[in-house]
Write a structure and sequence with these properties.
2 domains; three-stranded parallel β-sheet; 259 residues; 19% strand; Rossmann fold; alpha/beta; five-stranded mixed β-sheet; Ribulose 1,5 Bisphosphate Carboxylase/Oxygenase
C-alpha cells in the first residue's frame, strides 16, 4: 500500500518550522499596501492642497528619505485624445541643470559619423555587430541613436527596441545625420517626452541631489516645452493636472494658475 503524503502545512507545523499569524510582527500598511515609511512621509504632503512650484519642490525634498539618490518625476495629465493621430504629443527638451544621471548612449553608425560619435562621448558605437548583440537579448544602454542610413537594418530589431521605447526616431532627435551632436545634447541632459495611452506625460526631470533651484529650472524648461508642443487640433483646456513625486514618495499637486 502506498502511504499518502501528509499536507505540507501539517508537516511544517509538526516540525515546529511555522509561526502563527497572530504572533507574526507585520509593519503597518494602508489599504494600498504602503508601509510605515510611506505613511510617515505622506503626512508632509497635503493631498488636498495645490502647491506653488517652489513649495512643491521643497515638499518633494523633505519626503525623499530613501537610501539612494531618488529621481524626481512629473506626471502631467492632458485633455488630449491619444487615439487621434493629430493629437499625439512627442518632443524633446534640454534640461538646463542636467538630469543628475550618467546616460549610456549607443550609436548605430559607420565611417566618419561613427568616429565623430566616439569623440563626442558615445559609450557604444557600431553597426551590424551591435545589431547581432541586441538580437541575443542584450539591452545595456539608455538611448539609441542612428544615422538615417542605418534605419533599414534596424527594422529587424523593431519588436525588441520598440517595446522598450529604445528604437531611434526622428521625432525624438535620435535619427540624425549628425550623431555626434545628438550624443553631446543627450549627455548634457536632453530628454524625450511623449504622451501615454492615458493622455499623461510621465517624465523624470532630475535627481534629488540637484537641489531645489536646479529642479525648478528643469521643471520650468519641461513645462514650457510641453506647452510649445501643444497640437494645433487641441482646443480649450490643454493641461488638466500636474503632480510631482520623488521615487517611492507621495505625489504633490501643482497649482496650475501659478505656472
Amino acid at each position: 500500500m502506498v502511504e499518502k503524503k501528509r499536507p505540507v502545512k501539517t508537516r511544517i507545523k509538526e516540525a515546529g518550522e511555522g509561526k502563527s499569524r497572530k504572533n507574526r510582527k507585520v509593519a503597518p500598511v494602508d489599504k494600498c499596501g504602503r508601509g510605515k515609511r510611506y505613511l510617515e512621509i505622506a503626512k508632509l504632503a497635503d493631498k488636498n492642497k495645490f502647491y506653488l512650484l517652489d513649495e512643491a519642490i521643497e515638499v518633494l525634498l523633505q519626503t525623499a528619505n530613501v537610501k539612494f539618490d531618488s529621481a524626481v518625476e512629473a506626471h502631467i495629465r492632458t485633455t488630449l485624445d491619444p487615439k487621434q493621430a493629430d493629437q499625439n504629443l512627442r518632443g524633446t527638451v534640454l534640461m538646463p541643470a542636467g538630469i543628475g544621471k550618467n546616460i549610456k548612449i549607443l550609436v548605430f553608425a559607420e565611417g566618419a559619423e561613427a568616429e565623430a560619435a566616439k569623440k563626442a562621448g558615445a559609450d557604444l558605437v557600431g553597426s551590424d555587430d551591435l545589431i547581432d548583440k541586441i538580437k541575443t537579448g542584450w539591452l545595456g544602454f539608455d538611448i539609441a541613436i542612428a544615422t538615417p542610413e542605418m534605419m533599414s537594418r534596424l527594422a529587424q530589431l523593431g519588436k525588441t527596441l520598440g517595446t522598450k521605447g529604445l528604437m531611434p526616431n526622428p521625432k525624438s532627435g535620435t535619427v540624425t545625420k549628425d550623431p555626434a551632436k545628438a550624443v553631446t545634447e543627450f549627455k548634457k541632459g536632453k530628454v524625450e517626452f511623449k504622451l501615454d495611452k492615458d493622455a499623461i506625460v510621465h517624465l523624470s526631470f532630475g535627481k534629488v541631489s540637484l537641489g531645489a533651484s536646479a529642479l525648478k529650472e528643469n521643471f520650468v524648461a519641461l513645462y514650457r516645452a510641453i506647452m510649445a508642443a501643444k497640437p494645433a487640433s487641441a482646443k480649450g483646456i490643454y493641461i488638466k493636472k500636474i503632480s510631482l513625486a520623488s521615487t517611492m514618495g507621495p505625489g504633490v499637486k501643482i497649482d496650475l494658475t501659478s505656472l
